[in-house]
Write a structure and sequence with these properties.
Chain B: Pfam families: Ald_Xan_dh_C (PF01315), MoCoBD_1 (PF02738), MoCoBD_2 (PF20256). Chain B: Residues 18-123 form the Aldehyde oxidase/xanthine dehydrogenase a/b hammerhead domain. The structure holds two protein chains of two kinds. Chain A is α+β, with helices and mostly antiparallel strands. Chain A has two domains: 2-76, Beta-grasp domain (Ubiquitin-like (UB roll)); 86-154, DNA polymerase, domain 1 (Orthogonal Bundle), CATH 1.10.150. Chain A has helices spanning 22-29, 86-93, 103-116, 122-128, 140-154, and strands at 2-7, 10-15, 48-51, 54-57, 70-72. In chain A, α2 (86-93) crosses α5. By secondary structure, chain B is α+β, with helices and mostly antiparallel strands. Chain B has 19 helices and 31 strands. In chain B, β20 (451-457) and β21 (463-467) form a beta hairpin. Chain B is globular and about 85 Å long. Classes of the chains: A alpha+beta, B alpha+beta. The interface between A and B is large, with 52 and 55 residues.
Amino acid sequence: MSHSFTLNGQPVDVAVAGMTSLLSVLRDQFGLLGAKLGCGEGRCGACTVLVDGEPVDSCIYPVANAEGAAVRTVEGLESHGEPLTRIQDALLEHGGVQCGACIPGVVMTLTALLETESSIDDSTIRSSLSGNICRCTGYQKIIDAAQAAANANGGPQ
Amino acid sequence: MTLVGTSARRADGEDKVRGAARYGMDYLEHGTLVAKVLRSTVPAARITELDCSTAASMPGVRAVATAADAPGLSGLVIVKDQSLFATDVIRYVGEPLAAVAADTAEQAEAALAAIDVSLEPLEPVLDLEQSLAEGSRLIHPDWESYETAMPGTRGGNLAWESRVERGDVDAAFDRAHLVVEDEFRTQRQHQSPIEPHVAVARYEQGRYVVHTPTQFPFNVRGRIAELLGIRISDVRVIVPPIGGGFGGKLDVMVEPFACILTRKTGRPVRILNSRSEELATCGPRENAIVRLRTAVAADGTLLAQDGEVIADNGANSSGETVLVANVAPLVLGGTYRIPNARYASKVVYTNTPPTAAFRGVNGPYCVYAQEQHLDRIARELGMDRRTLRMKNLIRAGESMVNGQQLDDAFLTQAMDKVDEIRPWQDAHTERKPFRGVAVVPLTWITNPLPAGASIKLEEDGTATVTCAGAEIGTGAVTTGVLQIVAEQLGLRLEDVRVSPTDTDTGGYDGGAQGSRTTYGMGNAALDAATKVRDQVLEVAATMLEAGSDDLEIVDGTVRVAGVPDQQVAVASVVATAMFDSGPIGASGKFATPPIPFDSGCMAGAAVTSFAAPLYQAHMAEVEVDPETGRVTVLRYVVAQDVGRAINPQMIEGQIQGGVLQGIGYALFENLRLGDNGEVIDDDLESYRLPTAADAPPIDAAILENPCSYGPLGAKGAAEPPIIPVAAVIGCAVSDAIGKTMNELPLTPFSVLQAITEDQDRAVRSDQRHL
């Protein structure tokens, strides 16, 4: 069975069983190792990627569901000539990264938040992160980073 | 130039936010086989038959390993009672019986299912007290035959006992104004880093090369060698970026299976734990019982304490529980003046998965018990709880229970700092029904293990640090140590790098544990950097025709102080030195200096003192919902002495992360065991980890009270923030509902039960009055 979708802007076609997880397609077929197999249960969010702009747990997301969709991973983020995107930069500036295994997923969740929400506060950030477990940081510096990136979004380019 | 003390960005950060960092779980080699482990489903049995012949001949199966392939007995340093595979006897659900390497995971799973196991069931011993009871079945009947690293009290199902005794405890109890006695019970807590245990092993030139994201590569190397019965140096451990550990990756776990199977197949072998295997078989913080009896004078002075800690070792001593048994007495007697004390710390075998190190080891439950107990004493004396603590706090120059004098004690300062941020009096005045407040001081240890590091200067004037320090995620290796080195060498931070962690190239290092990396590795790297700096200055002095004492190194340039135009680039110094005296480079090393203590007061103590002791105080304000029992942490304050803050932002991150792990332990994390001693909570739906919604606002104050033998005064910082959390939240909940809480976690169910018990009693009492 073949499945077609765009992956970080490029059209792709994979021949795997439809129930194959999107995560294993990304890692095993395309060598994109940014999204992590943290729990394999859709609980920790380390495998978060965007499907048509929405964060999904790719470890339990059947590749068949991505048919015709736009799949974006941490490797495909566009930083518009800067070394890092705003949220990536803010995470480092605010000390939001420790072991970092959750961070590719966190980056994708917060990227979606910044792209879709016009008004972002502490509570919208916390609820958007409810599906991303970070065992290291206690979240505060990730939240600070998200707030700073949101503020920068509204500010001068 | 002052790099030390700045919140420099982590050097490995860009890779991590780009998803480009290659963790242990991302590491692959060509032609790698997949390994899977057959694990016991019963807690106690005699193995009468283990037939792997069918499995071995199945499609894709390349090798099967059993007990015969791993003849050694091992254990974490103290008691050697662990075999890699169950040999004749099964001692816990999840114990390895055999391992298979196959071309695919499905083939390996199919082969495991085809292994024939015949068992004769044995009566499982699951409960701590039942295990110690007279006539209980022995989990290790051959306990006397096991090798031990030091003498200690052992026997039957008592795996180990550490004892501390000072003064005349009985006499002090005889003259006490008040004697209070309490018992506390606490649960297992799982480390649950995002990255599971994983290893890739390859057999090459007669040696085992293992890629594994371990916190303590030299320990894993030694433990593989011991279990396989080979030389330590026949194993090489290479550590990719680590996806979290928290103590869970200190010890050998999946690596030996990969080693045996690569030797048998001649192919690289990868083994990756599922989340269920992680929770069910990778040693959590131990469950424990803490009994405290304390003699108090009328004015609140603590006269004596008699304490017993009974900790669950699980089925063997593969984890750190035995090794750190004596930390329990030290932490119970390390914060308050207790002139007469008698502590017994017992580690007990049960037919349950072995327990192991989790950040703070046995500290969180000992402190929980001690602080709940002190609050009860305060209530019985009618004394303010903070006043009781301040009265008995160890001051500079006074001694801990082991006789170790704390010349730099900083507990009152930490308590005062917390009070400055959130005055105790205000918190009390502003109290409302079902709100509670508590404050807890604590003395803790920096892990004292030794470290080696070397530094060489490159032709372009940059520096490379080579060490086997493991970067667990704190930033201690990739940033903290580099800040120390860059400052000492007068280089920009981006011009200093650290080579990958490898036991073949790096000097011995005691692992990323007990907040020791900045302290131990920082000291070793500083020693090496000092030697390298001396070499640079000696060569530059000749080049600049100046005395080396008159030189300074700033931003990669050596210059004569006060004469800015008389200067030479470090790169030129390196080039000159190359053909003059040889390449510039040096090795550094560190061992913690001897710490005086009273050795006569302790028995069976592997940890005898608190090296580079550090001091802190935590305060919490909580609200309890009387309808549901749910606890909300409204406000949290930490004041923590770190000696010298090398990177304040990273320390803050450790405080915030540690506090949230402590909140998980206090309120909901509970790795429950079932009727067969099996882990019930073997997925992240039932074992709930804290989310962003659980994180309270935290005010953190970093105090600098330098350690005379720490690098630039630094002591540990990362481990302790988890330790007082359950205590301070527990005490605040007790304050809110007016009841001592004797068990963790403080789930809505247990809190509601405590509230309604009181209401029931009030109703009954009202009825009596009618």
